[in-house]
Automatic annotation (TrEMBL):
This is Probable heme-iron transport system permease protein IsdF. The lineage of its organism: Bacteria, Bacillati, Bacillota, Bacilli, Bacillales. The keyword Membrane applies. Residues 285-339 form the ABC transporter domain. PANTHER family: FERRIC ENTEROBACTIN TRANSPORT SYSTEM PERMEASE PROTEIN, HEME-IRON TRANSPORT SYSTEM PERMEASE PROTEIN ISDF-RELATED.
Length: 351
C-alpha cells in the first residue's frame, strides 16, 4: 500500500516536471524510455553488486539520465516536435526493454541469480523497499515543490525568461534531474509503470489549472490514489491471482495516449521563425511560440513590429527564411491550398 502510493505520487510529479521542461504535453517517463533506462541500469548494477542494493536509485538515476539525454538529442531537428519526441522515446523505451530482457536471458545461461527488482511488481515488498522509495521519493517530491515557481516561469518564452534574469538552462537541467530521480526510484523499486505521468497531469490541469504550486501537490495525491486503486483492483479481480498495476495502467493509458495524439493540444507550433522581405533586415526575428486549440491568442506590438507579417507567415502566404511552422504536427508548406484553407484563414484589415 505505501509503495503503491509513493510510486503513484512520484510518477505523477515526474510527468508534470517533464511536461514543463520539454513543453510537451505527451511527455511521460514510462512512455519516452526514462523508466526503462533506469530499470535496465538498476538491474545490471544490483545483479553485479547486490551489497549496494540501497544505492540502486543512484544507478537508476544514471540510466534514466542517459535515456533522457538520448531522447533530447535524437529528437532535436531545428526544435523539439512533440510527435517526434514521442516516437523517439518509444524507440528508446523498446531498446532498453530489449537490452534488459537480453541481460536476463544471458545471465540465465550462466546460472546467475537475477535480482528482479526491475520487474513491474508491487507485491512481496519489504520494509527495506518502503524505506528506499520513501527516502528518495520524499526528497524528490520536496524538491519538486520547491521548483514549482520555476515550472510556471518555463511557460514563458526563453528570451522573456532570460530578460527577467532567469537562468533558463540551469532551471531546465535541475528540474529534469528531479524528474529523472522520481521516475528512477520508482523503476528501481516497483518496476516500469507507464502512463501515470501522462494521465494524472492532464486530469489535474482540468481540475485545478496550470499553476504548478497547486498542480504538483494535487498530482502527487491523485497519482497515489490512482496506483493504489489499480493495485487493489489487480489483487481482487481474479483473486487469488493478481494482475500487475502496470498492466491495468497500460490498458487505461494506451487509449488515452491515442486520444491525446488525435486530439492534439497544440494547433500551431512556431519554432525560431525569421523572415525578411529584402534579405537584409528581419521583420520577424527568431519567433518561437505555440498556439493552442480552443484558446484565443492575441498578438500585440507597435506599428512595424511584424504582426501582420507573422500572420501572413502563419497563413502560408510567405515562407520563413529560417525556422519552421507546424500545423497539427505537419509542416505548414506541405499542405495543399484547399486542405490548408479548411484549417487556417487570414483576413487582413481594410486600410
Amino acid at each position: 500500500m505505501l509503495i503503491a502510493m509513493f510510486t503513484g505520487a512520484a510518477l505523477s510529479v515526474s510527468g508534470v516536471l517533464l511536461q514543463s521542461v520539454m513543453r510537451n504535453p505527451l511527455a511521460d517517463a514510462g512512455v519516452i524510455g526514462i523508466s526503462s533506462g533506469a530499470s535496465f541500469f538498476s538491474l545490471m548494477a544490483i545483479t553485479a553488486l547486490p551489497q549496494f542494493y540501497f544505492y540502486s536509485p543512484l544507478f537508476s538515476v544514471l540510466g534514466g539520465a542517459i535515456a533522457c539525454f538520448l531522447v533530447y538529442v535524437l529528437s532535436w531537428k531545428g526544435g523539439l516536435s512533440p510527435i517526434r519526441m514521442i516516437l523517439v522515446g518509444i524507440a528508446i523505451n523498446a531498446m532498453f526493454t530489449g537490452m534488459a530482457e537480453a541481460f536476463v536471458t544471458i545471465c540465465s545461461y550462466f546460472n546467475i541469480t537475477i535480482n528482479q527488482s526491475g520487474q513491474s511488481n508491487l507485491t512481496m515488498k519489504t520494509w527495506g523497499d518502503v524505506r528506499l522509495i520513501g527516502v528518495y521519493g520524499v526528497a524528490g517530491l520536496v524538491v519538486a515543490l520547491f521548483f514549482s515557481r520555476w515550472c510556471n516561469l518555463l511557460a514563458l518564452q526563453d528570451k522573456t525568461a532570460k530578460n527577467l534574469g532567469l537562468r533558463v538552462t540551469r532551471m531546465r537541467l535541475l528540474i529534469s534531474i528531479t524528474a529523472v530521480l522520481l521516475a528512477a526510484v520508482t523503476a528501481a523499486v516497483a518496476g516500469v509503470i507507464a502512463f501515470v505521468g501522462l494521465l494524472i497531469p492532464h486530469i489535474s490541469r482540468r481540475l485545478v489549472g496550470s499553476d504548478h504550486r497547486v498542480l504538483i501537490p494535487f498530482s502527487a495525491l491523485s497519482g497515489a490514489l490512482l496506483i493504489l486503486t489499480a493495485d487493489t483492483l489487480g489483487r481482487t479481480l481474479v483473486a487469488p491471482n493478481e494482475i500487475p498495476a502496470s498492466t491495468i495502467m497500460a490498458v487505461i493509458g494506451g487509449p488515452f495516449l491515442i486520444f491525446l495524439l488525435r486530439r492534439g493540444t497544440v494547433s500551431m507550433d512556431i519554432r525560431e521563425v525569421s523572415f525578411s522581405y529584402d534579405q537584409q533586415k528581419d521583420i520577424v526575428q527568431s519567433v518561437t511560440t505555440q498556439i493552442e486549440k480552443g484558446k484565443i491568442t492575441t498578438i500585440i506590438g507597435p506599428n512595424g513590429s511584424g504582426k501582420s507579417t507573422l500572420l501572413s507567415l502563419m497563413a502560408n502566404n510567405h515562407c520563413p527564411n529560417k525556422g519552421q511552422i507546424h500545423l497539427d504536427g505537419q509542416t505548414l508548406n506541405t499542405f495543399k491550398p484547399k486542405e490548408l484553407a479548411k484549417k487556417a484563414r487570414c483576413r487582413p484589415s481594410a486600410k
